[in-house]
Structures are given as structure tokens and as C-alpha cells.
Amino acid sequence: MRWGTLFHRDESLGYILLAPGFIVLALLMAYPFVYAVFLSFTSKRIGGPATFVGLENYTKLASTDLFWKTIWNSIYYTLVALVFKFVGGLGVAVMLNRPFVGQRLAKALLLLPWIIPTVFSTLIWWWLFDPAFSVINEVLVVKWKLLSKPIPFLTDGKTAMSSLIMVNVWRGVPFFGISFLAAMQAVPDELLEAARVDGATPWRTFWSITFPLIVPVVGVVALISTIGTLGDFDLPFLLTRGGPNDATTMFAVTAYTLSLSSGLIGLGAAVSMTMFPLLAILVVVSLLQVRQRQGVS
């Protein structure tokens, strides 16, 4: 087959144009993933050989309290943060979907928590939560005298997890809000006008017309956020490093601690791989629901 004929065929040209992207994805994502799967079945240590040990790493993890605490912390952190980000994002989108003075400025300010580098914003929150120099405690305890003792934001297990969730929600609400707002503005005005003519209240119009039409976007946004939150490393590492007493350790933090801090590369890779089946199930279920919803509509 001549090269000219190959380039003029639509299906062939499409594959040729997509090839560089597939190659980059294979090098940057597929290869590290496959190599991590391989390492999870070995006793690899830093500076040592990778000896195949089968499922030994997984059975070893299953017998430790740290592993099960990691699973529980990760799922709890992800689910609670997801609920608050969904509610907050939906509320922000509904508010910004109505015209008011300063709407453009409000949209720009909404994006700030999301576009600020994670490390920079997390360090600011660490300063606000710091056990010794917390600005929040300084105001509430010393200046306003509303509390008798400082809040242990990062030194108590329950408050540390709540603090992490609050920061994650603060960063995630803009993504939910802007995505939901874009979906709402794509709803045909004819449908909304017809509902108003029929006497439907704004509340009824939203839940009967607007929300069902943006459900595919809601599903995709929730899926993206779930994947990012379940594998979150920056927030728990910078704020608590998994403490106190492993109360805020997540998949990524535990994998980092075992791999780089303890030198157990194989065991750390096994921790990361245990997260993959859960993510795969979430992706498949979410995509099937979105596809079904689009087929119905």
C-alpha cells in the first residue's frame, strides 16, 4: 500500500494522528503501572534485587492493622469529602446560574482554591492548624475568648481527619461548582420556560428538569473527584504525614512510607495495587450509568 493512499484514508489518518498520544501515555502511564504490578509480587528493597515472592506481600498486608486502617481512612475520607463537595458545588452552581452584580468576579474568585498550587495552599492551612502557632486558636481562645482551650486540629485523630476533609472540600468545591454551572447553562431555555408557563416552582423545575439533564456531568465529575481523593497524597502528607497514630494515613501515604521511608519497595507497591480494583469498579459502574442515562435521554 502506498503511503499517499494510507494518509488519505480517514481511518488510517486518525490512527496515525493519535499514535504520538498513545505512545506518550504508554511511556508515562502504562509502563510505570505494569512495573508497579510486577514489583508488588516481589521482595524488592531499595538497592536490592527484585525476587519474586508471589502473593506474600498481599498476605502480609492483610495481617497488619495498618493496612486495614489505611483502607478505612481512605474510604471514609473520600466518601465524606465527596458528599460535601457535591452539596457545596451544587449550591454554588445554582447561585452563580442566576444573574447578579459581580457575577464574573464571583466566578473568578471561586476558582482560586482550585488553581492555587496544592503545596502552597496546604502550607497555608498547616499554618492555620499548627498546634503551637494556630491563627484560628489564637483568635478563638486568646482574642475572642470563645474557647477555653485550643482545638487540636492536627494532634487528635478525629479532628485531624476532619481538618483534612475540610481542606479537601475547600479545594474541590470550585471544580464541582464550575462543572455543574457549565452543565446547567447548557440546559435548553425552552424546557425551563415551558415549566414556568405550566406553573412549576423554581425548586420543582430544578429537580425535575435541570438536575436530570446534568446527571451525566455529575457522574463524571464525581468519578474524577473520587479517583483523585482516594489517591490523595499531598494533603495528608503535608498536614499530618498520616498521623497521629496512623489516624489519617491513606493509600498513597502508606505506600510512600513503606516504599521510600522503610525501603520496602515491593510492599509499598502492593499497597498501591490494592487500590486499583476499587478504582476499576468505580470507573466501570460510573461509565455504565452515564451511558445508560444518555441512552435513555
Description of the structure:
With 297 residues, the chain is mainly α. It has a single domain (21-296), classed as Orthogonal Bundle (MetI-like fold), CATH 1.10.3720.10. Helix content is 76%, strand content 0%. It contains 13 helices and no strands. Helix 2 (10-40) packs antiparallel against helix 13 and helix 5 (103-115) crosses helix 8 (157-185). The longest helix is centred in the N-terminal third of the chain and has 32 residues, at 65-96. The protein is globular and about 70 Å long. The two termini are 44 Å apart. 29% of the residues are buried. The model has no long low-confidence stretch (mean pLDDT 86).
**Which fold name fills CATH's third level, the topology?**
MetI-like fold
CATH hierarchy class name: Mainly Alpha
How many domains, as an integer?
1
The major β-sheet equals:
none
The CATH superfamily is identified as MetI-like
What order do the SSEs take from the amino end to the carboxyl end, as H and E?
HHHHHHHHHHHHH
* Share of helix, binned: over 70%
- Strand proportion, as a percent range, falls in under 5%
Residue runs with pLDDT of under 50 for 5 or more positions: none
Tally of individual helices: 13
Judged by helices, strands and strand pairing, the structural class is mainly alpha
Apparent shape: globular
Mean pLDDT: 86
Distance between the termini: 44 Å
How many DSSP-defined strands? 0
Rg measurement, Å:
24 Å
